[in-house]
Design a protein that fits this description.
Layout (H helix, E strand, L loop, with lengths): L1 H4 L6 E3 L3 E4 L3 H13 L18 H17 L5 E10 L2 E11 L1 H4 L1 E8 L8 H16 L4 E7 L3 H10 L2 E10 L2 E11 H5 L7 E3 L26
Parallel strand pairs: 5-6
Antiparallel strand pairs: 1-2, 1-9, 2-3, 3-4, 4-5, 6-8, 7-8
């Protein structure tokens, strides 16, 4: 079976409304279709890499190729886990969790996108809460970092809801103009002090070695965690 050779294929995160996991082949195609339909208002660019400006067919193909490339470059020292987010069995977006030398740094970072028609429904905060639970409860992380342009109200709102604190800024040139990114950091202590959705995790123990970790930080199938 695939999970015998690549255990993250068996990883499952579940919240009250969502399931996060690696997609099958046809599910990846359906995810690409979500991207082709649109990810944001064309008048605003929330990403540093402007992949959403590609024509719909090329945008869809880029989702497939990017997914495969992240898994193909995986090592225990540096990995990126591009979990597809499912609602009612259908893909709605991607929640990425990544780390470098996690056993030493105890830090993970996130990135995500959500199909435009699935936005403004609280899905963005629920899917990031799911990977925060994975990182803090199962992977031994002590801090989770994220970033967003200063005018990206939606992303910054998710971070504020989950308890992130400011961690500095970055200044970037974008087609001849300045754009500023806010860095954000969530500590495990701040996460523990917030209410958060119930999250259950299956299949994490076989993944730990491939993530550069030893013993699990918690049981393989943890109890739902309603909050502090």
């Amino acid at each position: 079976m695939l999970i015998d050779h690549f255990p993250p294929a068996g990883l499952r995160l579940r919240t009250p409304r969502l399931e996060l996991r690696l997609p099958g082949t046809e599910e990846l195609a359906a995810l690409a279709d979500v991207a082709a339909e649109g990810v944001h208002d064309p008048a605003y660019m929330p990403f540093r890499i402007r992949w959403t400006e590609l024509p719909p067919a090329e945008r869809a193909r880029s989702v497939v190729l990017h997914h495969w490339s992240l898994l193909g470059q995986w090592t225990p020292h540096a990995w990126k886990l591009p979990l597809t987010v499912f609602r009612d069995g259908a893909p709605v977006g991607v929640q990425l969790l990544k780390a470098s030398d996690l056993a030493v740094t105890t830090e993970c970072s996130t990135a995500s996108w959500l199909g435009r028609r699935h936005q403004r429904q609280g899905i963005g905060s629920e899917m990031r809460a799911a990977v925060a639970h994975l990182a803090f409860t199962h992977l031994g992380a002590t801090e989770l970092v994220s970033s967003a342009f200063t005018d990206n109200a939606a992303s910054l709102g998710v971070s504020a809801k989950l308890g992130y604190a400011d961690d500095g800024i970055e200044r970037h040139e974008d087609r001849g103009r300045l754009r500023v990114i806010r860095r954000l950091r969530l500590t495990r202590q701040a996460w523990l002090e917030r209410e958060r959705p119930e999250v259950t995790v299956d299949g994490v123990t076989p993944c730990l070695e491939l993530m550069g970790l030893g013993l699990p930080a918690a049981s393989d199938h943890d109890r739902p965690h309603p909050g502090a």
